[in-house]
Sulfotransferase
Amino acid sequence: RSPLMQSNYKLFTELLSTLPKLNRNNPPVDLYQYQGFWYLPKVLEGVIQVQQQFQARPTDIIIAGWPKTGNTWLKALCFAIATRKQHNQTKNPLLTNLPHNLVPILEVEILNNPKIRETLHHSVLSTHMPYTSLPKSITTSGCKIIYICRDPKDTFVSFYHFFRRSHVLSTSAGGSITDLNSSFHDEFDLFCEGKTSAGSFWDHVLGYYKASLDRPDMFLFLKYEGLVEDPVFYVKKLARYMDIPFSVEEELEGIPEKIVKMCSFESLSGLEVNKTGKYYVHESYMLDNNSFFRKGNIGDWKNHLTPEMAKKIDEIAAERLGGFGFSF
Ligand code: A3P
């Protein structure tokens, strides 16, 4: 660490000792509550660095979403749309890179590369940070936010599998899971209560949704299910929202359809980089790229949740979000 990072780190560890803490035992990780959301310490360190250092540009496009709601796919689509004049479909960087390495997650990347904004050659960035914790430069600079959400039942199932892969046999993620059966039920309860290692899904969606009602021009609110149903429609909508609409010629050439094909689950998950590559999160934590591509289906929750579990999630969704006019 540089001297500046050392002193920041010292301040960060002091801050940690003052925050509410949740000891989880399966896996054995500690979560800390900051600005109403629970975090793993390393993620929180990144969040605080983003709050202190990150300077958004007015032309930036920020992709936001709770983990497992379709961020990887949306990043691939937005990257392809934003850089389509530089790269054609046959030599596209998406064919040799995990989308997270092309559209970095701010709070992860800033710890590896504090000058993240200066070194990026396009305007698409991403974050899992809650709306209420975003740095001022994002909320006031005029940049646009594309938010993705997904049925919470599928989100939970996807999250559980991802979480299990990153924690089984992994001490680098903070500890390993010892009892898989009870971990599914524990994780379900914690998801319902908003105490996961990614914070509360409910508060995350609600924070962005409420902000989008106040400032509709700043947000494009998308649902994973909508993207699955009509990806070409949404690719055109994304391009218009990003102020780079497809020209008549591009539409005649079928560029939106080609982008959809290149970014489809089948194409991305079949690439060598996504089958065998690793995603470096920080010095002691790596993930297999293929953990971001599991099934890519709507309704996989039916294979994992009991009817009671599904009912419980639907009830929480209705209670927490329904009153604001939001439904999945
Ligand atoms: P499943 O676990 O249900 O399969 P995130 O990118 O936010 O981490 O979300 C991961 C989810 O999106 C996983 O869902 C993953 O399989 C799915 N996914 C990844 N790439 C996709 C694509 N190109 N099209 C559709 N779904 C995709």
Notes: The beta strands are 21-25, 28-34, 37-39, 61-65, 124-127, 144-149, 219-223, 278-282, 285-288. The two ends are 43 Å apart (CA to CA). DSSP finds 17 helices and nine strands in the chain.
